[in-house]
Structures are given as structure tokens and as C-alpha cells.
Amino acid sequence: MIACVKGKVFEKEANAVIVMCGSIGYRLFVSFQTLSKLEKDKEYLFYTHHFVKEDRNELYGFLEKKELFLFQKLISIGGIGPKTALAILSPFSVDKVENAILEGNTNFLVKIPGIGKKTAQRIILELKGQLVKDESERVDIPDEVYQILLNLGYKRKEIDRVLKDISQSDLDTKSVEDILKLCFERLSPI
């Protein structure tokens, strides 16, 4: 599974970008919110979701972890695939979509093309509790540290446990390398 892609934007398309990593170009499907922030020939780090189905093999890219997180929550709902999840994230910020879900605002969600009242109600029903729970469990750390530990093979629960043990002042003041050293002292070998 491809967790992230770092490279220069080679080409922008209507709903995707081609990102060059060395001599390989990856097509990443992105939301309009993400697409509007990208500049050609500039380097970015994309958090990715690799979607594989019998007839499809696609990468979805996100500049922010919270957008990836919400995307993954949305596609976990029956009847919502990656294209629909991107359609939900395209016109609005992640915060606005999350707030609509938390407030139970179906009128907001039905404004999104392809989302009817029943789908909006299902999204709210299935995600309302998860967003509150997951938001309260999040640890404010540099995304880079979390991604490095994931790429090294550590499990999310183990990373979250270790990061909760590290003081907020250390997280705010220490470098990525120093935070990683603190994590490695607390993590069991892979």
C-alpha cells in the first residue's frame, strides 16, 4: 500500500494531478479543495489512499491528514465509493463537512451533487459518533513523525499510545528527529 507520495506536480487535470517522483508519474485523484491549492512544478507531500477493486486501481491524494481521515471514514459507509467521497470533500472544507455531520445538518449535505436525503442521513448516522470519538483521541504531533512511524511498520494504535506518553511541550519544541528518538525509546521492536 502506498501511504504517501512526495513529488512535483507535473500536470493538473479536472479532478486529478500527475505527480512526478523520480522518473515515475503518479495520477492522484484529488478534491477541488486540494486541486485549487496546487501549483505546477512545485513539490508537495500527498497522503494517499490506494483504492483497489477488480476493475480499478486508483490513488487518491490529500495535502492534509484530516482530509484523508474523513475520506476514509466516508468510503467505509455502504454505497459511498471514492468518487462520491471526493464529491463530498470538493466544494467545502473538511471542517465544514465535519461540522455538518456533527450537527446533523442534512440540508447542508444534500447541496452536494449526488447526495440525496437518505444518503445524507446515513452519513450522519454512521459518522457522527466516530468523528467526535476520533477527534478527541487525536494527538497534535508533526504529521511527518506519524507518517514515518507508519512507514516503518508500526501500528496506528501503538503509535497513538506512545505519542500520548510524550509531553506536549516536547512535541511543540523538539525536532522531528528528537521526537522520533523519544518514540523509539518507548516502542517495541517491529
Describe what this molecule looks like in 3D.
Its main location: cytoplasm. The protein is an alpha+beta fold. It has 3 domains: 4-62, Nucleic acid-binding proteins (OB fold (Dihydrolipoamide Acetyltransferase, E2P)); 65-137, DNA polymerase, domain 1 (Orthogonal Bundle), CATH 1.10.150.20; 143-186, no CATH class. It is 49% helix and 21% strand. A 5-stranded mixed beta barrel has the order 1-2-3-5-4. Strand 1 and strand 2 (16-21) form a beta hairpin. Helix 2 (65-75) packs across helix 3 (82-89). The longest helix has 21 residues, at 117-137. It is globular and about 50 Å long. The two termini are 18 Å apart. Mean pLDDT is 87; it is low at 133-140.
